[in-house]
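Q: Sequence in, structure out?
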Amino acid sequence: MVNRYTTFFRAINLTFDYFVLNLSIFMTFSILNERPELWLSNQKYMKVILILNLTWLLAANITGLYEHVMEKDSIKTFLNVIKTYLLYIGLICTVNIMVGTKDYFVTRGYIFYSSVLLGFFLWTWKLLFLSIRKNNRTALFNARKVVIVGYGRTGSDLHDFFDNDTSNEYELLGFFEDNPKIVPNKGMYLGSTADCLNYIKTNEIDEIFCTLRTSESDKIERLLIDSDKHLIRFRFVPEFYNMGIKPLLYQSFGHIPVISVRPEPQENLLSRFFKRIFDIVFSLFIILFLFSWVFPLLAILIKMESKGPVFFKQLRSGRNNRAFMCYKFRSMKVNDESDEKQATQNDHRITKIGAFMRRTSIDELPQFFNVLIGNMSTVGPRPHMINHTKQYARLIDRYMVRHFLKPGITGWAQIQGLRGETRSTEAMQMRVEADVWYLENWSFLLDLKIIFLTIWNSIKGDTNAF
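A: Exactly. Output:
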């Protein structure tokens, strides 16, 4: 459960982190330049400052620095800060090597001074924050007194959740249930549903969790009205929560409440527009600056090793399960099993140059033309062969959900190590769950994280890529 103060303290952490980051930047420029007013008016320095801030944002997003700001374990907090700090320095050094220092004055001296200052300020600020949080833990984690109306399976599960929750946000006092026999812990039984109003008035209850069935709408409505009158928050727990519908998206069609089975951030037109713009720009960059010189080299090597075309093309399942022609560099000898059989470890069909391309994912480069055309995206669920889609759609309940999105060159499943041969239905099930998670949790920063980790895995090599 997310503590109700989490959003506030996440904002505080992010604000102060950026404050100390920019303080270290300005102090470093002041140390290395005799007249600071010159670099304040220099647009090149402003670009550097923007890049440094965006780099910290990327590093923090990759490590999840701001996801667990209320983590009680101070060691974990500091480990996350150290990981983010080191990744930030690594990214800055990488960008510095690629771009150079001549035009932007980001010298080794600057990197050294700014890193030391940032480390000092960051460490001091985090110690201060943890000290304040520790001394005021009672106030920060002040538990809300709650009761549950209705026992049953839903009430029992909610009780277990409160019992095991470590956030200290709620203090469960007991149950109100018209059938006291079904409440196993008699010490938690507070009375019938009719007794609830008197109890909450005399015991300063903060919230009511109602787990009554919708068939008992009269009782639910009465409890809701009484809660509103006495300024007590009323939470209704739907009885279908255990059907795997997670997370829920609530919408209102006029006065009619509608619950969608999952959020889909990419259903937002603006989100799809920005994703498409990024796909076009990124694919053009890869085609012009990487594919253009890699293609002739690989074409020669592929032709020298085995007879057949340079490119391999195959019908794959796309968005809304529409088939499209997917392109790759040919990494196998020409064979009759390519549309039926997956590549396996030590597959005799894979050529030597093909093994290298598959290990480094270079064989996927032609798919950037698919991205440019618009039947693929840079990031999304990997497109599967048509016959595999038909096969797994029968075996895995949520398999087709992944086809709500455009397929991608890389995806959340791939950076989690879920790639290569699927020897069992369970292995494919794990991929599908990862793809559905991506669909429900998409953001532009998540795409950048996936792209960065894909490039990193390509450099170091992936043992599941064969």
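Residues 6-138 form one domain.
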